[in-house]
């Protein structure tokens, strides 16, 4: 289920198949709904619903005109086809809070990350709060899932340098020269990364904490790390 015109539009542009499109009779017209899915690969069924039904099915308490029923995509790692030489990947191990996952996807999309892998997922990828907090970036960004072991195997097979956010044996992130083919790996705020990641890391990195707080929100720390990779790449492109 996808709520909101912007999110539905991003799903259409991302090649997702919309099966049905519902619109509240008090908030939109059939023409508005038809226009929203005009460029969809298929022609979804468009259904007008009453105000009462609209309020019952909306999670956002009726603030959005449109609700789409969409088919899942296959997010298994076996579907990955890497085409770029300087691929940049974000890996998040066992994130649980939908708001954090959505924020990670939104930040990754904004920084030009090529794909995101959720290792050992603990939350449904299509959780409504993930869709909402990602502002629909779930649909515009390639996202895959697998176990940590499967993800490590994939990264090593593809010769992708693994940088893990870890407190032990780490270099400050600003002292690291990030490789062309690289993955930034982050864990949960309370437990961090599991040992299998630090055992297979090419380089542990850390964000120094200069105040009394001993950690940052995972979406904030991830943003710092991936934008450092972006900064270095932009500098190299200007040389």
Indicate the topology.
Layout: E1 2-3, H1 5-13, E2 18-24, H2 30-36, E3 45-49, H3 51-57, E4 66-70, E5 88-93, H4 98-110, E6 115-119, H5 128-133, H6 137-140, E7 143-146, H7 148-157, E8 161-165, E9 171-172, E10 182-186, H8 195-199, E11 203-206, H9 218-238
Parallel strand pairs: 2-3, 5-6, 5-10, 6-7, 8-10, 8-11, 9-11
Antiparallel strand pairs: 1-4, 2-4
Helix pairs in contact: 4-9
CATH architectural name of the largest domain: 3-Layer(aba) Sandwich
**Domains (count):** 2
Largest sheet: 7 strands, parallel
Mind telling me the C-alpha Rg? 20 Å
Q: Using the coordinates above, name the CATH class of the largest domain.
A: Alpha Beta
Order of helices and strands: EHEHEHEEHEHHEHEEEHEH
Order of strands, widest sheet: 7-6-5-10-8-11-9
What is the CA–CA distance across the termini? 46 Å
Within CATH, the superfamily of the largest domain carries the name: SPOUT methyltransferase, trefoil knot domain
Helix content: 25-40%
Number of helices: 9
Class from helix and strand fractions: alpha/beta
Shape: elongated
Notable characteristics:
239 residues; alpha/beta; 60s Ribosomal Protein L30, Chain: A; Alpha/beta knot; seven-stranded parallel sheet; four-stranded mixed sheet; 34% helix; 21% strand; elongated
Note down, in words, how this protein is organized.
With 239 residues, this protein is of the alpha/beta class. The protein folds into two domains: 2-70, Ribosomal protein L30/S12 (60s Ribosomal Protein L30, Chain: A, 2-Layer Sandwich), CATH 3.30.1330; 77-238, Alpha/beta knot (3-Layer(aba) Sandwich), CATH 3.40.1280. It has helices at residues 5-13, 30-36, 51-57, 98-110, 128-133, 137-140, 148-157, 195-199, 218-238; strands spanning 2-3, 18-24, 45-49, 66-70, 88-93, 115-119, 143-146, 161-165, 171-172, 182-186, 203-206. The strands form two sheets. It has a seven-stranded parallel beta sheet, with helices on both faces. A four-stranded mixed beta sheet has the order 1-4-2-3. Helix 2 (30-36) links the parallel strand 2 and strand 3. Helix 4 packs parallel to helix 9.
